[in-house]
Amino acid sequence: MGDINMTNAAAAATMDQQLQYDHSLDVKPPQQGGSKSFDDDGRLKRTGTVWTATSHIITAVIGSGVLSLAWAIAQLGWILGPAVMLVFAFVIYYTSCLLSDCYRTGDQITGTRNYTYMDAVSTNLGGSKVKLCGLIQYINLFGVGIGYTIAASISMMAVERSNCFHASHNDNPCLTSSTPYMIIFGVLQIIFSQIPDFDRISWLSKVAAVMSFTYSGIGMGLGIAKVAENGKFKGSLTGISIGKVTQAQKIWRKSQALGNIAFAYSYSMILIEIQDTLKAPPSEATTMRKASLFSVSTTTIFYMLCGCMGYAAFGDMAPGNLLTGFGFYNPYWLVDIANVAIVIHLVGGYQVYCQPLFAFIEKCAATKWPKSDFVNKNFQVAFLPGCRPYNLNLFRVVWRTLFVVLTTLISMLLPFFNDLIGIIGAFSFWPLTVYFPVEMYISQKKIPKWSSKWLCLQLLSAICLVISIAATAGSVAGVVADLKVYHPFKSNY
């Protein structure tokens, strides 16, 4: 990703002018003003609303990360765990509001649009920060693809083992490998990755959002039932006890828990891309702030309930994946439904995160090879009689397929769910969620240096940087420990 070409605002503007048309959407060149069919920038009329944006965000946020929250709270304890979740929720919402104002440069109704996160950074900050932003953003999106592949395979394995245990009446150890399930998930993603662009997957986001509520609700319900069965709330005020882990392990785990919570809330890196699907008026920033408020509030309630009830049910033994912690208790079919819902959700979530990366690579390729038929030409392919032909682009097919194959292969080699999502969350939290939104806001609003507001924003950024460093260190330590005992491509359970 070191060959990112957008080094300043002028370069980004030039690239956008060259690429105003989109072959998959048959978008016309820019024109003055809007119309019934086209927006003020000449692109097809955007139709997104606060509810479609909310569904996109919920699909991105209430993902596999929710399943690790019981484990995260178990490391932090009853006091620090919920408090950290609330702090993350506030920070995410606040910085998302700052970032939403960066979609347009100048007036929020008529100003120039920034179509991607990188465009916003290029316009407001420019220079080497554009390359740095792109590198971090797209590495993170790549990592999310890996994390989602691992999470989906774990859920598919859980369904197989559950049915195996009940068929054998617990006489069979039912050992299985995650590799075949990662391949299955990869094949599904190769198919869905051929959806041309982000705006065409709103239906998939809505289905995924419903699935996220389904499995989160089941996990929460099972946690409540388990607490009722135990007759008490397990856990302690300070988290997992010394003895079950060493003092050093406890410190590393607390750090890793911060990364897991950061991952569970992360969506800033695709906020601008989601905002670019919204219709106006009202201004896209106004709609996005409402969508962020609805989404963050909803997810925080779910997170608190799922994480806290999971910790109350299992205490220090809270599993890395909440649903696997219920083992194969009856009603096992309910756990199966939850795991199937996870898989369906992750199919959509994978696309919500990866479509911006797909679009960026294809945009760069079209700029570098503008006369290449392999990169730019669409072929009309009719798969079903009576249905609208599909615009087949050879570069899109090859590049996106290779991307999915690579994420699947890495997932097979490093199937460490908690540790990996901790690294992903920690790596992206400070720069994408805090640093760039804060710096762009300061630049856009021309906040004086050393003013009280400037100092408060810089203090927020510095605190979040420390949290990201600690979380990254803890997660890396977890991966190193896992690698000492892991054997690739063998039975995991």
Task: Considering the chains and any ligands shown, give keywords for the structure.
two-stranded antiparallel ribbon, 66% helix, 4 strands, mainly alpha, globular, 493 residues, Amino acid/polyamine transporter I, disordered N terminus, 2% strand
Using the 3D structure, state the CATH architecture.
Up-down Bundle
Percent of residues in beta strands?
A: under 5%
Question: What is the CATH topology classification name?
Answer: Amino acid/polyamine transporter I
The ordered string of helix (H) and strand (E) elements is HHHEEHHHHHHHHHHEEHHH
Number of strands: 4
Helix amount: 55-70%
**Which class best fits the helix and strand makeup?**
mainly alpha
Strand order of the largest sheet: 1-2
Rounded mean pLDDT score: 78
Report the major sheet. Answer: 2 strands, antiparallel
The stretches of 5 or more residues where confidence is low (pLDDT under 50) are: 1-33
Number of helices: 16
Head-to-tail CA distance between termini: 36 Å
Q: Please report the first level of CATH classification, the CATH class.
A: Mainly Alpha
The domain count comes to 1
Shape: globular
Going by CATH, what is the homologous superfamily? Amino acid/polyamine transporter I
- Our Rg estimate from Cα atoms comes to 23 Å
